[in-house]
Amino acid sequence: MLLNHTNHAYFKWSPEQRSAANSQFGRVIDAPFPNVDPEASTEDVAFQAGVCCESLLVAATVDSKETPAERETVDVLLQGEMSYVVSAVKFFSKRGIKCWVATTERKSIDNPDGSKTVGFAFVRFRQY
Questions:
Q1: Which pTM value belongs to this model?
Q2: Parallel, antiparallel, or unpaired: how do β-strands 116-127 and 99-110 relate?
Q3: DSSP per-residue codes, 34-100
Q4: pLDDT in tens, 65-112
């Protein structure tokens, strides 16, 4: 199971990204990324990450199979505010949970009016 701890809901992913996630991780559960106060201290953000990540693990355990032997492996897709992500990766890594990022190829078009149209094409999942 992949916990999608980002601001990008699974149903909005490209068909290629959904297919890769299903193939690599099985099912995907959205676990929305929290708002992180830009005025918060590093310690406050680390605390927020710990509280949020602990609740995600509890929810994943409840959502999973009944006995420990039947429980799914939990991996986490983490993308968002960087100081929170660093704290969350540390939290999950200490518990043996793999964290991932979706890699993309940036596609940019220079428009005649000088503006740019930018898009991103999913490439693969990369482990932190």
A1: 0.85
A2: antiparallel
A3: PP--TT--HHHHHHHHHHHHHHHHHHHHHHS-SSGGGPPP-EEEE-SSHHHHHHHHHHHHHTT--EE
A4: 555 555 678 999 999 999 999 999 999 999 999 999 999 998 888 999
